[in-house]
Task: structure prediction
Amino acid sequence: MTEIIRVKNLTKKYGDFIAVDNISFSVKTGETFGILGPNGAGKTTTLEMIEGLKSLNAGEIYLDEKNVQEKPHEVKAVIGVQLQASSFFDGLNLKELLETFAALYDRKVDALGLLKSVELDDKWKSQVKQLSGGQKQRLSIAVGLVNDPKVLFLDEPTTGLDPQARRNMWDLITKIKKQGKTIVLTTHYMEEAEVLCDRIAIMDHAKIMVLDTPINLLRNAGVGTSITFRVDKQCTVEHFQKLPAVEKAVQEDHGYRLISSNPELTLPALFKHESDCSFRLFDLQLQQATLEDVFLKLTGKKLRE
Amino acid sequence: MKTTLKLTSSVFKMFVRNRQALFFTLFMPVLIMTIFGLIGFDRVPKTKVGLVAENPTPATQQFIEQIKNISAFEVTLGKLDDEQTALSKGERAVVIQIPNALIPDPAAKKVPTKQTVTILQNIGQAQQAQTAISVISQLLDKTRLAITQAPDIFQLEIKDTNARNAKYIDFLLPGIVAMSIMQMAVFSVAFVFADYKEKGILKRLIATPMKPRQFVTAQVIVRLFVALVQTAILMAIGIMAYHAQVIGSYPLVFLISVLGGIMFLGLGFTISGLAKTVEAVPAIANLIVFPMLFLSGVFFPTTAMPEWLQHVVNYLPLTHFATALREVMGDGAGWVAIAHHIYWMAGWAVILVGLSVFTFGFEEKRV
Result:
């Protein structure tokens, strides 16, 4: 798989404040790449430097084998952009708006078809100010697609949307992903990154803390799966502690919680222990760790504080 | 080029669908012209004359009728007390007391006695009072001549001549045209671009391969076209509804309008660059535009101003814009006659467009 974006030693400073600190990564053609982090981590700045909207203090960026700093116009021609909370002209309907944007790329567009793909085709006569938040974000994606881009950048596409609109947006992004487009998105929702992204870079304080697939992030972060259950007889915590792959065992109000690095090993041993010591397990629950836990472990703080 | 054309047509659609912009560019100027036209600064106000005559003889009554018929007078007949009160309230310029037997009866063949006409004049309206007094004394002279039958050795011969009399509307129309183009160019650009910047629309635009000058060009083309339409519509209304006389060359009028448009578009872009928020636009723009509106001879000639002020006024861009239009429209001036106004306007255009290059940018000017 070829790399469509290569970022090397990227740095951005505003006076003494370092917004992006010497980060490097690459994005493969066709993948959905997520940059995850709290507000102010440097996600948007990173994205806008790749999009050619902001100058760099150091480093270099190649997109589709073009140096972004040297050929910003050529790069802008092959990317589609959704800016954070961007709005559009008043006084044009959605169809006219898409056609105007297509003209900026010197092309023609099937505006109604594009609106249909984001489920706004029945709204083509409306103006932007008449749209709801979710509709505006979908329009914003449609505008980002007018030039049939190789890479689509989405800066916090679901921030400020209600849960229903967020799900719709995920479906839409998944659909675009299936068309084979490379997507780079930022988010501060863990769930969103897990659902949508093939690989995730977690950013905090201007640096990339870790970059991997969601599964590896969970596995390697050592957060473990939690197994909770209750028993009908008094047991000792020490016994559970000795079960394979158990990292921690604690007694809680109504039962026990085991943190396992490998539940496939822990669970059979737990069942064997049950029959050996003749007690009965009930209310057994398995809780997969989430990226939220990974982030908490990496940074010592919650994602949205 | 194709991009710029498409942008121009989109920008045009946005402009004509913006009711607020249309109101300020077309409706407001027409409204102002109507109001000033209705006030009618042409009409010389009539001199208010109070007449007091208790019980005039028929001959005196005839004399009073003569006074009443003078078109420059608005005559009120009343009692002395009432008229004096009216005078002290400033409602009369003069109050004339006429003795009952001012004019001797032509039938009675005796030597008339000397009669006194008392005139109370309002010092606050000295000019009108003086006019009234001289008219009355002329009338008395004429009457005396008629009665004493002295030979008349002077004769006034007054001939009607057709002159092109500049009416107030002829002064106002070019001023209104200049004013509306200034308002349109400054406010529509400053508001729209400050809004685009605040909403992130400009940033979204430079995320495309478009060059900023393509977008600016489209905006400028549309507004210069609007300036031409404004000029045409205001002239048409001025001529048809208010009988303004436009005797100069139309192409020259339109050319001046475009130059004025360029000049003030430069100002508009400069202001939108200076304004950090949309709210700051009216503050900055009005600070510049408002004084100019009243100092540049849009509504009234600048000749009434103190001399030092006239020197200042002669530097203002709107002064040269309005004056150039006025000289062409009203006096039929040609290119050469207005050349120095054109140079001034071109100079201002260079300065203001230059300034806008410094202050105006698509990108946020961050450290």
The interface with chain A takes residues 2-3, 6-7, 10, 13-15, 17-18, 199-201, 203-211, 363, 366-367 of chain B (CB under 8 Å). The first strand of chain B starts at residue 47 and ends at 52. Residues 168-198 of chain B form the longest helix (31 residues). The two ends of chain B are 34 Å apart (CA to CA).
